[in-house]
Amino acid sequence: MNQNQTMSKKDLVAILAAALMSFVGILIETSMNVTFPTLIKQFHITLSVAQWVGTGYLLMVSLVIICSAYIKMRFKEKNIFVTGVIFAVIGDLICALAPNFWILLFGRLVQAGGTGIVLPLLFNIILERAPLSRRGLFMGLGGLIVSMAPALGPTFGGIVVYFLGWRDIFWIVLPFMIVALFLGWFSIDQVTKLSHPKFDWLRLALLTVMLVSLTLGFNTVGTLGWLNFEFLFSLVVFALATWAFIAASQHSDRMLVNIKVFTLPVFTLSLIAYFLIQFTNIGSNFILPNYAQLVDHSTTLISGLILLPGSLLAGMLNPLFGKMLDDLGPKRPITWGNTIFAIALIAFIAFSLHMSPMMIMLMYIVFAIGMSMSFANTMTFALGQVPIQYEADANAIFNTLQQFGGSIGTAIASSFLASGSGATTAARTASGTQHAFIFFFVLICLNFIFYHYAFKLKPKEA
After folding, report:
1. How many Cβ atoms sit within 10 Å of the Cβ of residue 457?
2. Choosing a second label site near 393 at 20 to 30 A (CA), which of 86, 98, 175, 223?
């Protein structure tokens, strides 16, 4: 931690390098959402298969982030950063040159590994180098990157695909990765001592089984329904892997993540609410651009741009929402945000069978404002209630669940779109969209219960 009140130019460049790489990594998480109709036609695949370029990416990022505490303690930050960028660049080139879908998916997974390495490093660099008087500002900028980049992805992807082609998404971001690599190479120094803890490969394997089985299970719902054997089997595998993970955690002295943080009710309740917000947010960001193309027959340009006003406005209001928490406490801004979020979902339910691009854009503005007001403040509130010895684990868990929430949200959103009723693709998509938003609305209503008990049980004033 920087005890001085100023920062060197080298430290600022280090933060810039990590921020640039993190932004690019998160931007391309969702930039492929608008390309699914194109990929389906070009590679002759179904929507449930095409969505894996998003779901698989988020799933891989989740698994790498959970290892971030160990990686930071074991390796030099410059080496971590360079390794992350190299993975991202190699994956990017594989995607740009992919001759078929499965090579494209492989490239996305390699690329995701790089993002999962660099993203938590951004916040570590800020915490170590930013003075206390300016830490809130830099952490806020980091949070802005995490919250805005996924929403800007469909806009970026839509513009590129409309004027160029989906492969150009990867060629355009490549120079920014190279610039970030050089900035980080010359600016990131080691400021903390390294150690050599033993890594818990068993628990990582069990966690992988947990996340992959759940994702694969939800991915079958669109074609086989909610009560199909494969889905139920995946739930059984998930439950068994979870039990084994908890049992192994109680007896392991190797490093991965400390699950004792889940004994804190405020943390657990806030984490569930945070997961459901991200689940709904990324799921909706998947549905709306595809709705615009498949139902309204809009171009990829229009389908990407419809999310831009809401994303930009919510991003600009983020500092205000954070100040509201500082001035008013967590209860009011989080509850207000969840209420606005729920109202937007009601609007989507009411009009989802017949939504024009302009209607989507206006309703998404309300949606994005409500989401942003509750999302970041939920994490801030929860981490503020966690004892210092659990802070690193709590931060890793929040970041992991943020990515996994997006992965599951994409898988389930795809399942709803594929399982809609109707004689045409447009009718089935509209029907599936309405069912999805009904489901999202129920989840966000559950958040009112989680927030009620979280505020009631908080161990100290926030």
Report:
1. 13
2. 86
Per-chain mean pLDDT for the chain: 87
- Give the E-state strand segments of 104-212 in sequence order: none
Q: What is the pLDDT of residue 315?
A: 79
pLDDT of 5 = 57
Assigned CATH topology for domain 257-462: Growth Hormone; Chain: A; (1.20.1250)
- Please give the pLDDT value at position 3: 53
Residue pair 69/200 in contact by the 8 Å Cβ criterion: no
Three-state secondary structure call for residue 236: helix
Beta bridge partners of 199: 255
pLDDT digits (tens, 9 = 90+) for 197-255: 889 999 999 999 999 898 888 877 766 777 788 889 999 999 999 999 999 988 888 88
Query: Going by C-beta distance under 8 Å and a sequence separation of 6 or more, which residues neighbour residue 152?
Result: 27, 308, 311
Q: What is the pLDDT of residue 462?
A: 38
From CA 47, how far away is CA 40, in angstroms rounded? 7
Helix, strand, or coil (residue 131): strand
Coil vs helix vs strand at 44: coil
d(CA 232, CA 91): 34
> Which of these, 231, 363, 195, 338, lies nearest to 287 by C-alpha position?
363
The tokens of 335 are what?
């509850």
Backbone angles phi, psi at 131, to 5 degrees: -65, 155
Under DSSP, the state recorded for 263 is G
**39's tokens:** 């990929």
List, for residues 130-174, the tens digit of each pLDDT value.
776 666 667 667 767 776 777 788 888 888 988 999 999 999 999
Rounded to whole angstroms, the Cα distance separating 358 from 414 reads 23
Structure tokens at 322: 């954070």
Residue 376 to residue 381: CA distance in whole angstroms: 9
Structure tokens at 179: 């610039």
Rounded to a whole number of angstroms, the distance between the first and last alpha carbons of the chain is 23
Residues in contact with 362: Cβ distance below 8 Å, sequence separation at least 6, in sequence order: none
Enumerate the domain spans of the chain.
1-197, 257-462
Q: Under a CB-based contact definition with an 8 Å cutoff, are residues 63 and 210 in contact?
A: no
Q: Collapsing DSSP states into helix, strand and coil, what is residue 462?
A: coil
Residues forming a β-bridge with 2: 131
C-alpha angle 52-81-71 in degrees, rounded to nearest 5: 80
H or E element, residue 97? helix 77-97
Query: For tokens 């699914």, what's the residue?
Result: 36
pLDDT band at residue 356 using 50, 70 and 90 as cut-offs: very high
Q: What is the pLDDT of residue 202?
A: 92
157, two tokens: 């992807």
The CATH classification number of 1-197 equals 1.20.1250.20
Q: Which of 367, 118, 383, 349 is nearest to 274 (CA)?
A: 383
1-197 matches 257-462 in fold: yes
